[in-house]
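Researcher: Please translate sequence to structure tokens.
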Amino acid sequence: MEYFTLENIVKAVGLAIAILTFLSKIKIFFSKKSAYRGDYNLAEKLLNGDKYPNVHDFVLEKWYLAITGKSLDASIIRFYLEQKNPSQKLRDFHKALDYLVVKHDTKGRTYVRLKKPYEKEWIFQLSKWLNFIFYFCSAFIGTMPLILMDKLVNQGMLVITLGIFTVIIFYVLAFSFLERFQKYKIAKQLIEREIYGV
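Model: Translation complete:
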């Protein structure tokens, strides 16, 4: 019965998570090569000889879905395929999607702009500072149990477990604030590159 202590259960769960993470990384590593080969073959069939302007929207969208695993409107795919470095711009578009809006002009041409509140420079600067402050506070709170670890060890297994959860939760929160600002920054850069043709 002494095997089922809280300490042993926490160790077993930690070990199981580590093993599952390791096995999933191995699976991903070995499946990537064949996936890249398949992506290349699909891209070559569609893009060789510039066939994509004449391809039906449905086929283009399904092709893109097969390569990236993400759905996207055919007009956006065509828009970015006609620009410099289309794969990077399409990746950036997906990352920054929360901040972007797709528009069409009177001639039916597609273009992308920032959503209304995000197009102002002061909103960008305010977002930068707020996300930095929230990131710093979350990271600081998440670091506190690590700094006070020698005091937590003497308090028992439950306090140590709560300390570990505090570190994880606040580090994830800190990362989310950092990621949110990065997406906004990517959206801004994507629009600037589009406007200046870079």
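Researcher: Any highlights?
Model: The longest helix spans residues 6-47.
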